[in-house]
Amino acid sequence: MNSVMQTHETFTAEEQALLTPYVTNTDQSIFVLKNLPEVIKGALFSRYSRSTLGLRQLLLKDFILNKDSAFADIQGTPVGSVQDDSLAIQKAQEFYDRILDGYGDDSIGELGGAHLAIENISILATKIIQDARIGGSPLEKSTRYVTFNKKVNGEYLFYHEPKLLKSSHRQLYLDTNRFLFDTYSQLIDPVTVYVKTQIPREGGDREGAYNRSVRAKVFDLIRGVLPASALTNMGVFGNGRFFEVLLSKLQSSPSEELQTIAQTTHAELGKVIPSFIRRAEPEHRHLESYQKFIQDSNQLAQQFTNKHVTNPPEKTSELVQLIDYDPEGEKKLLAALLYPHAEQPLHQLREIVSNLSLEEKQAIILQSVALRENRRHKPGRALEMVFYTFDIQGDYGMFRDLHRHRILTQERQLLSTRFGYHCPEEIVEAGMGKTYQDAMERAAGAYETIARDFPYEAQYVVPLCYNIRWFVHINLRALMWLIELRSTPQGHENYRKVAQAMYRKVEQVHPLLAQYIKFVDLNEYSLGRLGAEIRQETKISGK
Fold first, then answer.
1. How far is Cα 510 from Cα 326, in angstroms, rounded to an integer?
2. Residue 507: which residues within 8 A CB-CB, separation 6 or more?
3. Contact between 479 and 517 (Cβ < 8 Å)
4. What share of the chain is helix, strand, coil (3-state, %, to 5)?
5. How far is it, in rounded angstroms, from Cα 184 to Cα 176?
6. Residue 430: how many CB atoms within 10 A of its CB?
7. How far apart are CA 80 and CA 123, in angstroms?
8. Partners of 470 in the beta sheet?
9. Cα distances (Å, whole numbers) of residue 89 to 42, 95, 107, 279, 406
């Protein structure tokens, strides 16, 4: 054992026995906490930042041996026991809140977290939840690997929006959603037959792997028929600060669904990390202040828009537009690249770089690019000095996939049927083009009727294949990762086109810097790629 990793602390045999259930070791400088509720971990770390004691000593002094902490009650449910520790957590709440208030700030909420399952929420709601980017990791049920034509008690699984069900649009809303799910179900068999005729099973393909690959491709092709009201499941891991911000945003939303999600989520998280979400309580002064701020901000922006933005929207067939970029991007990147290895201030390094010849600039960038052997070799943060802003018009299904990239700035407009929709060529070739088109026209008619009275709630009847507008402001380092990941052959063809278009836009304005996006795949695959996917899955399932 490296002596540097050995602790300078000493514990008696009795203390070691007390600590052992809660730390992975008592003799090394690096260890992990275990078997402790999140409320204790957060409170413990809040003390840690203001103490000369080690974390294990604090755990003993302020918690295990401190009668006021109620540690014996709150330490957790024993393995195999059905004991409910909610009462103990409530009993100790005042003690931990006092620690958090006395020694912590907002960042203390990042030291404890929770795994949250959110089931039977609309696809529309998932995007709002995923807007909260920092401190949380969401995972959503896939439209590629799971069918959405299941019924429960004779009804498809879609969100029954309360306002619409109480309005004159009730039957229109229900009938439109049911018709879209009927169409989705109707497409499965003929599209499956078509896909199998295009890529027949080869002798070496395992039947199970082949069928799963075909099924995934079919679901990819028909997912656009699903309405935004379709119910799905999410898993979210986040720290306390993330959840507090998320809950505040959800409770400030005009959506009744999101407000209900917020109320239920707050109640459940309150059983695990109550201290970290206090300010998101419905009547807390911080939440009330935040809600007023959001309401006033939205009202101000809407009034300004209504007064000054009166021209009709431009019609464009361009998938991606590069709105702006940094003309001095190369100079800024090179100066930042040299900065950690020099002693000069940044402005001086930029002057030095400006005086380099084009050949010298090209040499260092191209040599840096050459060092990347695969897309997981990420260059340093110098690439974050270069920014681009893209305006994108693509289908909502595509947006859902790209929306998951969180190290960037995204903003979108309301989902509607006014910018057209995407119909996969394979749907037409399978003989189902008219069926697809009829469903889209019916959805558009329902949307326009409902939107006159309920513009926000009308989004629920919009199928995923309809286009939405959003902008992306992103640095080169994050853009490199997005383009290389989303252009891989296994990706959905729609978002592959966005990634490829982004690359080409960068190449036009920064041909040298575009070299960093080394592993972009500009090929077209469509169904032709399915055979390789089948063989890959066969190989995996055969292990």
1. 9
2. 514
3. yes
4. 55, 10, 30
5. 12
6. 24
7. 37
8. 392, 412
9. 13, 10, 22, 18, 34
Instruction: Output the six-digit token pair for 536.
Output: 């890959």
79: burial class by Cβ within 10 Å (0-12, 13-18, 19+)? exposed
Measured over the CA atoms of residue 239, residue 240, residue 246 and residue 250, the dihedral's sign is positive
Tokens of 76: 């957790």
* Residue 473 bridge partners (DSSP): 389, 409
Give yes or no for a contact between 496 and 402, defined as CB atoms under 8 angstroms apart.
no
DSSP β-bridge partners for residue 227: 463
CA distances, 390 to each of 433, 471, 475, 510 (Å):
32, 5, 11, 15
Residue 337 in tokens: 């690249």
From CA 406, how far away is CA 132, in angstroms rounded?
A: 9
Q: Strands 113-122, 387-395: parallel, antiparallel or unpaired by DSSP?
A: unpaired
In 309-424, where does DSSP find H-type helix?
Answer: 329-338, 346-354, 358-370, 396-402
The domains found in the chain, sorted by start residue, are 3-104 (no CATH), 319-417+466-527 (3.30.1360.170)
Q: What is the side-by-side strand order in the sheet with 409-412?
A: 320-325, 387-395, 467-475, 409-412
Q: What is the pTM of this model?
A: 0.87
Ramachandran area for residue 263 (φ above 0: left; ψ -120 to 50: alpha; else beta): alpha
136 three-class SS: strand
In angstroms, the Cα distances linking 169 to 165, 228, 262, 296, 452 are 7, 17, 26, 29, 11
Beta bridge partners of 388: 325, 474
Distance CA 131, CA 411 (A): 9
- CA-to-CA distance for 291 and 543, rounded, in angstroms? 54
Residue identified by tokens 């950690």 is 340
Phi, psi of 49 (to 5 degrees): -75, -10
Sheet arrangement for strand 136-140 = 113-122, 231-239, 136-140
| End-to-end C-alpha distance for the chain, whole angstroms | 37
Which one-letter DSSP state was computed for residue 313?
P
Tens-level pLDDT at each residue, the chain (543 residues): 454 578 888 999 999 999 999 999 999 888 988 888 777 777 777 777 677 889 999 899 988 888 777 677 665 544 334 445 555 555 556 655 665 555 556 677 777 788 899 999 999 999 999 998 889 999 898 888 889 999 999 999 999 999 999 999 999 999 999 999 999 999 999 999 999 999 888 877 788 888 888 998 999 999 999 999 999 999 999 998 999 999 999 999 999 999 999 999 999 998 888 878 888 988 889 999 999 999 999 999 999 999 999 999 988 889 999 999 999 999 999 999 999 999 999 999 999 999 999 999 999 999 999 999 999 999 999 999 999 999 999 999 999 999 988 889 999 999 999 999 999 999 999 999 999 999 999 999 999 999 999 999 999 999 999 999 999 999 999 999 999 999 998 888 899 999 999 999 999 999 999 999 999 999 987 665 566 666 666 666 554
